Amino acid sequence: MKQVGNKDEAFSLKTRIKRLKRDSNKWSVFTLAIVFFLALPIVFIGVELFAGPGESWSHIVDYLLPDYIGNSFFLVFFCSILVLVFGVSAAWFVSRYEFPFRKQMEWLLILPLAIPSYIVGYAYAGIFDYGGSMDLLFREVGLTFIRIDIMNRAGLAFVLSISLFPYVYVSARAFFLNQANNLLEASKMLGVSEVKTFFRLMLPLARPAIVAGLVLVLMEVLNDYGAAKYYGVNTFTTGIFRSWFSLEEPQTAVYLSALLILIIFVLILIEKWQVRKMKFTSSKSNSKQIQRKPTKGIMKGFIFSVVFLPILLGFVLPVVQLIYWAVLTAATVFDMEFIMISVQSFAIAIASAVITVFFALILIYFSKWSTLSAIKNISRVGVLGYAIPGAVIAIGIMIPTLALDKWLINVLGNFGIDSGLIINGTLIALLYAYAVRFLAVAYNPIDSTALKVDNSIPDSSKVLGVGNLKTFFKIEFPLIKTGVFSAVILVFIDVMKELPLTLILKPYHIDTLAVKAFEYASDEMVMEASIPSLFIIFTAMIPVIFLNKLLIKK
Amino acid sequence: MLTINSLSKSYNKGKNFALEDVTFNLKAGQVCAIVGESGSGKTTLVRLIAGLERPDHGSIVMGDKVIASLDKFVQPEKRKIGLVFQEYALFPHLTILENVLYGISKIKHKRKRAQDMLDLVGLSDLGDRYPHQLSGGQQQRVALARALAPEPSLLILDEPFSNLDTMLRTQLRNEVFDIIKKTEVTVLFVTHDTQDALSVADEILILQNGKVIQKDVAANLYVNPNTLYVASLFGSTVHINKNLQHAFRCPLKETCCYAIRNEKIKVSPSSSDTDCEYITTAQVIKKIQLGESIQLLLKLDSGEQLTVMTQDKNIADTIFIGFNSTDILEFENE
């Protein structure tokens, strides 16, 4: 009898198809459905490109596009430099040296994340305004001729950097604290100076971590609408808003969105390439943390100042300015309507946090239960929304839902039902958009805690006769609770701060604190914007402090 | 009871096979040990049987039911197989009693059953503790109680003692198998330690590079090993290569591979004292006292080195060593 090679047969096309049939289960189908649902807005942007550009497109290409591209590159370039200087220096000093208030500063450096960039922008506009704090200060010391105008793209780059540098700080610090000790000691034993050790050894090794943080910053820079609008800088996002609201040309907005996606795609490619180039960096964490060096004299003062400066600029100054305004405007702003808006804001943020975390859990566990290996990779597509600016996601949802609603009105009209808009301009579209945009924010903390649960734990539950869903509720969920909880909080903060997507998709009778602050600022009432801003900051601050504790534990 | 048919599994789409064309069967009530080095496919094999992995080829039949093949896959929770993991995998947020109760929530008198199981493993009083409050050995016994509680038709132990130190290991191994014997369950016992296998198994299956090399009762594996690898697993063995054949003047067939167990090599002070068929002289390079006996590191004239054991305390620097043709192990060429 001729023996058929088992090895060859096991991967012949026929056996593969048989296995595919055996191994596809409902979880695979559900995962694919969820991924498709989350990718839909981007798919629509792609589909709409075929409908051709709007009437003003050629005008925009001739007169505005160079501006959009020029400003975007300007912002990307200068924000990169500034956040690297602020973030990496602070991360290195708090990881490597002991100095007064180091422990407090370690978490204070994360606080700028609690303030949305556009609010930092409002505060600085006030500080440098004619008759603002800076102006008064200069006049006090007799420097009346100095007027600093920050309402331009350089000012915008500064504002965005000072509010976004903590992304770089956090990832660089995590690297310095947990991965660097052995190498640092080796370098010391070889008699290399501190400065040289930092530039020759630490900085190159930390590069993948730093680049990862930097890419997050740049995505936020390209996502920003509120600050750019207020500073009068034309960017892709302000362009999308202009085409949508002023020109009423959805097609032009689609084309700008597609271009913006392209730019972000290039950024991500650069990151991947950077990280791959640095593959030799060990990802195993050394159990020993870095040893801090005590500092003396001038060194102590220097390090303290370098670390305190970004806290002062990114948190203390803006908050003091806002509190000052708040005191002046409290009587007029703080009324029943404001309380209603706060409640709405909270309710929307909590609802979308829960929904988003729910989707993240589904994506993580369904793809795990799906026994096809390809599904796991496909499931990562669902997380891409975080790279896509809020305005783009909003356009990607607005266009199809408008079309769907039109169709529904027609169909229901035939039955004599006047339905009005069902999806568009309702909370459904808004919550859906938040879920698409912030899925990664929920996905990452849950995924990393889920990875810490050894596979043998759910496996032994299954062997004991308990199915996937029940195993999840009885065994896995109790073990990943902290991850789920931090995911809910993180999404909550992001939704509280979110502006561009909310502006486009919110139902017109509903307001959030972010929208209210933006409206005040746009109506030349920037002082009145301070109270909703402070509300956002303080709700975001408490969890930021709490989450930092989690980060430090990690 | 369990029939495995040309089972194959690859984790990289056929580039390498973790398990290749494995076929064997297991009788009810038997204790079968699976022995192999790390990476030999032991864990893959038990995960396939438990339903935690899916085979790329072949089938698994339990009783008269196919539980895994190319067309069919029975979920792990439907297989009625007990599995004790190397790392125990106790549920950290449940008490010991809750852990044991976990798999038997649907049966009648489950509390009594769980308590009986804890009694059986000698942990009657620790039911309300949490896993982290127990020692390694105690956790091991909880894992066993939990796996036995649903009365599985097959119990798999995946390297259950490898996390324990040697002293505790022997003691716990004996305890665990005393408990298992009482339940009369069929057992697959995965280990990389031949001592473990020899002391408890009715039959031993040897895996190497994902393939079954031999499956037999312990005594046969010692006397009739299939390969040099199997021979060396059950006692140190010397490969009789060309040089040694020449040194001992024992002409052997070229098409085969030969070996002799170290303990079958006899040491004598002069050529007249030995009754061996094949003899040669050797220089003693080093003597190591190992309790009662002495290990000698020898060098032959041909330059070959080998070690032998002797009880003789007055060993000269030059000695005679030899063996008999009946002690030679013969294998197909590898």
Task: Give an overview in words.
Chain B: This is Iron(III) transport system ATP-binding protein. Chain B: Keywords: ATP-binding, Cell membrane, Ion transport, Iron, Iron transport, Membrane, Nucleotide-binding, Transport. Chain B: One of its GO terms (cellular component) is membrane. Chain B: Residues 2-234 form the ABC transporter domain. The complex is a heterodimer of chains A (554) and B (334). Chain A is mainly α and 554 residues long. Helices cover 76% and strands 1% of the residues of chain A. Chain A is built from 24 helices and two strands. Chain A has a two-stranded parallel sheet with strand order 1-2. In chain A, α18 crosses α19. Chain A is globular. The mean pLDDT of chain A is 87. Chain B is α+β, with helices and mostly antiparallel strands and 334 residues long. Chain B has two domains: 2-233, P-loop containing nucleotide triphosphate hydrolases (Rossmann fold, 3-Layer(aba) Sandwich); 237-332, Nucleic acid-binding proteins (OB fold (Dihydrolipoamide Acetyltransferase, E2P), Beta Barrel). Helices cover 25% and strands 32% of the residues of chain B. Classes of the chains: A mainly alpha (554), B alpha+beta (334). The interface between A and B is medium-sized, with 28 and 40 residues.
Quick summary:
Chain A contains 24 helices and 2 strands. Chain A has helices at residues 6-10, 13-23, 26-49, 57-96, 102-108, 117-128, 133-140, 153-164, 166-179, 181-189, 194-223, 226-230, 236-246, 250-277, 297-333, 336-369, 373-379, 390-414, 427-452, 456-463, 468-497, 500-505, 513-522, 530-553; strands spanning 97-98, 293-294.
